[in-house]
Amino acid sequence: MRAKDITLIAILSATLTAGKFVLSVVPNVEIVTFLMILYTVLFGYKRTLMVVVVFVTTEILIYGFGTWLLGYYILWPTLVILTHIISRTLRSEYGYAILSAIYGFTFGLFFALFESLFYGISYAIPYWISGIPFDIVHGTSNFIIMLVLYKPMVKTIGFAKEKMHVA
Amino acid sequence: MNKKVVLIGLVVLLAVAALFGYNQFFGPDAKAGEKSVTVEIYVESQGIDKTYNFDTDAVFLYDLLNEVKDQVKFESEDSSFGPMVVGFEGYKADSTSEYYHILINGEDAMVGVKDVPVTDGDVYRFELRNF
Predict the structure, then answer these.
(1) What's the average model confidence in pLDDT over B28-56?
(2) Among A57, A147, A160, B129, which residue is least crowded by beta carbons within 10 Å?
C-alpha cells in the first residue's frame, strides 16, 4: 500500500465520521450509506473496506464499546461488497438508490438479529418492531439522498480523484 | 416535471403511508393492556417491600415504569448508557454507595430498563443494594 492510499483512506474515513456527526441531530437520516456506496464506486472496494474499518473503530472510540459494534463490523462491509458486486453491471444512480433504500429499511432487522445473539430473540423482536418507524425514515432518506447527490458527487469527487492522480 | 422529483414525492408519500400503517397496527390503543406483569420493589433499610400487578401494552420496562410512575413513585436519571433507575416509593438511592438491582424472574438483568422487553407473566424486581 502506498502513502497516497493511506492518506486517502484517512481522509475518506474522516468524511464518514464528520458526515455522521453533522447529521446526528436528525434521527436516522445519515450520509454514511451514500458515501460508502460512492467511495466503493469511485475508489474500489478494497480501499473502501479499509475506510469502513477505520470508520467503525472511530465510532467505538467516540461512543464506547458495545454489542452494536459486531453489527457495524458486519453490516457496513456487507454494503461495500454488495455495491462492488452490483457496480460491475450497473451505472445508473437509480440502482444505487434502491440498494441504499433496502439497506436502510432492513438495517433495524439485521441489527436486531445480531443483538439477539447477545440478548435472545425475545429482546430482538420488540427491538425491531419499536424501531420500524426509524427504519422507514432511514430507507426513505437514503433513497432521496442517493438520487439527489449521486451524479453531482461522482462528478466532483471524480474530478478531485483525477487531480490527485488516484487510480 | 423532472422524473426524479416525481419519484421522490412518490417515495415520501409511500413512507408516510407506511408510518400511518405502523401506527394503526403497533401504535398504543385505548384498550386495557394485554400483558400482565408483576413489579416488586424492595428497600430493606426503609422497610419497603411492595408488589404490584400491572396490565400493560408497554414494549420496554422503562415505558411501563413511566406509565405507572405516580403509583410506584419511579424516578430515573439520564446517563451515557441510557436512563438509570434511581428511586422508588420516594426513596432515592445514594449514588455513592447504593443502586437499584434489577431482577427478571429472579435472574439478574443483563441490560438497562430501557432495553428490557416487557413479557407477559414476567416478574420484575427492583432491589436496593450496596456497592
Answers:
(1) 83
(2) A160
